[in-house]
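can u do me a favor
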């Protein structure tokens, strides 16, 4: 069972920046896709950014040019750098690890970290 622990959330003013971290309990190379998702109150959980084991990155249209997903292989950690934050970015952010070979148990989630963008 992969364990994921997020950190780095908080309160930030519009236009500010935050960096979220996701510590992974095993080698990132054993995970097919790492990703960040977010869920605002009363809304569904949506993909924010994903990073494939081969390095392919995908972003939601709403965050392109503002957010960057990256990884530190030595630290088994995935990051989400968030710049030019807007109130609409307010949500609980979840780290996700997807492992194809596990089939119906492919998805693993962290506990989430709150990001609030407000003046």
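np, heres the sequence
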């Amino acid at each position: 069972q992969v364990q994921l622990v997020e950190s780095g959330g908080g309160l930030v003013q519009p236009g500010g920046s935050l960096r979220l971290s996701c510590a992974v309990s095993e080698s990132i190379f054993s995970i097919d896709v790492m990703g960040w998702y977010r869920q605002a109150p009363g809304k569904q959980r949506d993909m924010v950014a994903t990073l494939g084991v081969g390095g392919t990155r995908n972003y939601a249209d709403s965050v392109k040019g503002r957010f960057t997903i990256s990884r530190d292989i030595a630290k088994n950690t995935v990051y989400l750098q968030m710049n030019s934050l807007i109130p609409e970015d307010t949500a609980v952010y979840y780290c996700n690890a997807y492992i194809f070979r596990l089939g119906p148990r492919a998805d693993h989630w962290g506990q989430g970290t709150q990001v609030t963008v407000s003046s």
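The chain has a mean pLDDT of 96. hope that helps!!
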